[in-house]
């Protein structure tokens, strides 16, 4: 009897411990990927696939004892060079003033690779998957499954040798069905990791870049409407910077964030057009229209979540 | 003038006739003599003549000359440096936020162009309740046109007006999408939000 009891207890304990251990293996892999994009000197190219469209970028990163620098170069017309030196990010446009922002990552790169792992653990479970070969390199699959329904899932393929992320798929559902393709695919097409910082970056390190001028902070006008519901884990960013070109048209505006994803909610006077939704890769653009108001929700959330958010505006 | 001088010298190096005046100039000007000598050397090398041995230090001299040459970056780095210089001359990022600057939207459009915006058919209530796939209608000239309008309307004027309204809607949505992206760029979310473990708020 005691043997049976011991056996049953052992099975229960093992079944509890095993997923936790698998989870830790996944998070260790994830940490390796994050460290890889922070620590290595590299010159890589990647492509972002959104449906039938592709955007190609070159991404250089370097660091020495004192400083970190990276340079994102869009390889398409009208692209904007983005340079980050430590905490300053510069958007450099021909014959226009630069935009200088503050942050520790370029927002046009996958936020997943740069946000605090502790934060991501509150939103996702990590499960290491099978090995495969991507562009001739051995890669380990890592599934980040959203804990709640509001978020999309991420599948990462991580280079076994260097820990560098080779591919990131954003998925609405994890079931592998033919009709359930990735909403967006981020994929490395060329990878070169070097012991030294790329030459171009060494030059950029020394160049004088524009100064960030203080942004004029306006007194926040009280919102004319109320947002009655937030998706799980999201909260309202208290003081989003105002985008003046929209001020005459936007009656109320909220920026929501779960620390990893951002969602905008705009309220405008009705243009009396049908309710619609659009997609740009993983970003949903949902417009709810009634005779009085248009509510537009934009962010990496499902149409269902966007619809519920829009419906909660009073 | 210079090319004329070189032309008759080059012909002279190929044993062609020169005028008495040219010969007189050649005899009087050491510079022309050196040029003729170089042309003859070039010709001899090209003809692979055995007695046209280059000076012993020729390759060393060439190597020294190359070593003194600056390294040219044949990438867009030079363009980037120009942009950096140009942007410093201007008033940093203030213009990005000015309402009167029409360029503000144009700049952000240029920053991240909207590609592949796909039409989501106006959904029925029951369709919204489930994770319905996005209807993938190819955009026309960069804009998605609702299928229902192009198929069901019988009044062409009405249809044109509706399509114009939809295109206007697309323009507004692209502006909102750029505004959203701009917010994401300029907002340091980590400093603006509290701990993410917030309870779901239901009113």
Task: Assign the structural class of chain B, choosing from mainly alpha, mainly beta, alpha/beta, alpha+beta, or little secondary structure.
Answer: mainly alpha
CATH-defined architecture of the largest domain in chain A: Clam
Radius of gyration over C-alpha positions of chain A, nearest whole angstrom: 22 Å
What's the mean pLDDT score of chain A? 85
| Largest interface: chains, residues each | A-B, 97 and 78 residues
Structural class of chain A: alpha+beta
Tell me, briefly, the overall form of chain B.
Answer: elongated
H-E order of chain B:
HHHHHHHHHH
- How many strands, what sense, and barrel or not for the largest sheet of chain A? 11 strands, antiparallel
How many discrete structural domains of chain B? 2
Number of strands of chain B: 0
Spans of chain A of 5+ residues with little confidence (pLDDT < 50)?
none
Mean pLDDT of chain B: 59
Q: How would you name the oligomeric state of the polypeptide chains in this document?
A: heterodimer
Beta-strand residue fraction of chain A = 35-45%
CATH topology of the largest domain in chain A: outer membrane lipoprotein receptor (LolB), chain A
Distance between the termini of chain B: 90 Å
What's this, in brief?
With 314 residues, chain A is of the alpha+beta class. Helix content of chain A is 20%, strand content 40%. In chain A, the strands form two sheets. In chain A, strands 6-5-4-3-2-1-11-10-9-8-7 form an eleven-stranded antiparallel beta sheet, sandwiched between helices.
Describe the structure.
The complex is a heterodimer of chains A (314) and B (203). The model of chain A has no long low-confidence stretch (mean pLDDT 85). With 314 residues, chain A is an alpha+beta fold. Chain A folds into two domains: 24-206, outer membrane lipoprotein receptor (LolB), chain A, CATH 2.50.20; 235-311, MucB/RseB, C-terminal domain (Phosphorylase Kinase, domain 1, 2-Layer Sandwich). In chain A, 42% of the residues are buried. Chain A is globular. Chain A contains four helices and 17 strands. Chain A is 20% helix and 40% strand. Chain B has 203 residues and is mostly helical. Chain B has two domains: 2-68, Orthogonal Bundle (Arc Repressor Mutant, subunit A), CATH 1.10.10; 96-192, no CATH class. Chain B is 57% helix and 0% strand. Chain B contains ten helices and no strands. Chain B has helices at 2-13, 20-28, 30-46, 58-68, 77-89, 103-111, 125-128, 147-152, 156-186, 189-192. In chain B, helix 1 (2-13) packs across helix 3 and helix 2 crosses helix 3 (30-46). The longest helix of chain B has 31 residues, at 156-186. The radius of gyration of chain B is 36 Å and the shape is elongated. Chain B starts with a helix and ends in an 11-residue tail after the last helix. Residues 89-153 and 191-203 of chain B have low confidence and may be disordered. At the A-B interface, strand 5, strand 6, helix 2, helix 3 and strand 14 of A face helix 5, helix 6, helix 9 and helix 10 of B. Chain A: Its main location: periplasm. Chain A: Keywords: Periplasm, Signal. Chain A: Residues 220-314 form the MucB/RseB C-terminal domain. Chain A: It is found in: Periplasm. Chain A: This is Sigma-E factor regulatory protein RseB.
């Amino acid at each position: 009897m005691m043997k049976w009891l011991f056996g049953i207890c052992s099975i229960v304990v093992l079944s509890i411990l095993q997923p936790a251990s698998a989870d830790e293996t996944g998070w260790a892999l994830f940490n390796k990927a994050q460290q890889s994009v922070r620590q290595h000197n590299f010159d890589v190219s990647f492509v972002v696939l959104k449906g039938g469209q592709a955007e190609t970028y070159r991404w250089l990163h370097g660091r020495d004892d004192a400083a970190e620098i990276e340079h994102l170069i869009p390889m398409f017309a009208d692209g904007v060079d983005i340079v980050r030196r430590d905490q300053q990010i510069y958007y450099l446009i021909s014959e226009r003033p630069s935009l200088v922002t503050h942050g520790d990552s370029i927002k046009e790169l996958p936020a997943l690779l740069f946000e605090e792992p502790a934060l991501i653990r509150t939103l996702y479970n990590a499960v290491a998957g099978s090995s495969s070969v991507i562009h001739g390199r051995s890669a380990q699959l890592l599934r980040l499954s959203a804990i709640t329904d509001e978020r999309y899932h991420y599948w990462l393929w991580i280079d076994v040798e260097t820990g560098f992320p080779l591919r990131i798929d954003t998925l609405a559902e994890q079931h592998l069905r033919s009709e359930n393709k990735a909403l967006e695919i981020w994929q490395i097409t060329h990878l070169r990791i070097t012991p030294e910082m790329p030459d171009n970056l060494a030059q950029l390190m020394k160049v004088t870049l524009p100064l960030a001028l203080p942004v004029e902070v306006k007194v926040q006008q009280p919102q004319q409407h109320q947002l009655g519901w937030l998706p799980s884990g999201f909260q309202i960013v208290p003081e989003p910077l105002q985008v003046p070109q929209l001020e005459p048209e936007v009656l109320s505006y909220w920026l929501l964030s779960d620390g990893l994803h951002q969602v905008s909610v705009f309220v405008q006077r009705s243009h009396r057009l049908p309710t619609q939704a659009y997609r740009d890769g993983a970003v949903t653009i949902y417009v709810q229209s009634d005779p009085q108001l248009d509510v537009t929700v934009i962010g990496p959330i499902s149409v269902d979540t966007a619809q519920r958010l829009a419906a909660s505006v009073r | 003038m210079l090319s004329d001088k070189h032309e008759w010298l080059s012909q002279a190096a190929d044993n062609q006739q020169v005028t008495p005046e040219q010969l007189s100039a050649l005899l009087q000007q050491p510079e022309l003599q050196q040029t003729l000598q170089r042309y003859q050397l070039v010709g001899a090398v090209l003809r692979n003549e055995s007695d046209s041995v280059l000076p012993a230090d020729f390759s060393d001299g060439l190597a020294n000359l190359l070593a003194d040459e600056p390294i040219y970056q044949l990438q867009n780095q030079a363009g980037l440096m120009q942009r950096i210089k140009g942007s410093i001359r201007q008033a940093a990022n203030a213009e990005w936020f000015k309402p009167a600057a029409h360029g503000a939207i144009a700049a952000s459009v240029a920053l991240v162009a909207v590609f592949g915006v796909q039409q989501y058919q106006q959904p029925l209530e029951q369709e919204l309740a489930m994770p319905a796939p996005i209807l993938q209608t190819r955009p026309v000239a960069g804009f998605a046109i609702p299928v229902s309008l192009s198929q069901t309307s019988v009044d062409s004027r009405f249809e044109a007006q509706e399509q114009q309204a939809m295109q206007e809607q697309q323009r507004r949505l692209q502006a909102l999408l750029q505004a959203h992206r701009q917010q994401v760029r300029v907002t340091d979310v980590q400093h603006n939000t509290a701990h993410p473990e917030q309870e779901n708020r239901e009113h």
